[in-house]
């Protein structure tokens, strides 16, 4: 990711007097233009990087500059290391391990044991239980396209089952709710859209088609619902039997459970009402009952009846 690359460039320049932009581009598998954009970002952060012209030229830190040791404390280095290792469970590449090795190299020897203990206490594993062999290639290709400003095409099946071919300008990868999304400018719709990676296939970078990164709109994010999405939020109440308390705790957390007079447990939540919500509620089977609102209860009941009808009918095979 970009932050990882910026940190790697800074650490590399601290250890080498000068390095060519082409070498950096090859090392991080991005374009030379991307490297120069990174240099501008680092300069704006207050770390002076100078570009030297000529045959023996390249990119280097300003003469006499040294990174203040207080810029990153030992605890901050440990936090960065832990975050990188966690991200690597779903989005790992060879540069992640390289950067972690570099962070290890700047840890004071006297702090080494404590550093190892702190970085081993927490691991956030983003990888799915069934593996991510199909997901990793998609992430790598889209990262390359976003970094290099390369137009990308793919076949996409939306939430309604409609299949279309999309040509987009990839801008950002987002991990939300255990799912990866691509935030991209759709050339057909002429606006930013979010695409779930699991719904993509036949990804390919368009030959000879590049783009200049656009300013991301405030609402084109999977991190929070837009005003229009908030209007489609439905508050509902679930009732779990006493013996199914553990199921409610697993999905909603202990704090969300409210005891009922009959020994059952109630959960009140608000989610966006769509096909995902219906499938989510049906997934609890007979362990949970929708009490409110009435229309949602009717929808779940109707779909449960349709499922029962399928299983009561003779199998067609």
TrEMBL record:
Keywords: Transcription, Transcription regulation. GO terms for molecular function: DNA-binding transcription factor activity. SUPFAM superfamilies: Winged helix' DNA-binding domain. This is YafY family transcriptional regulator. It comes from Paenibacillus soyae. It comes from the Bacteria. InterPro entries: CBASS_pafABC_assoc_protein, DeoR_HTH, HTH_11, PafC-like, WCX_dom, WH-like_DNA-bd_sf, WH_DNA-bd_sf, WYL_dom. Pfam families: HTH_11, WCX, WYL. Residues 2-57 form the HTH deoR-type domain.
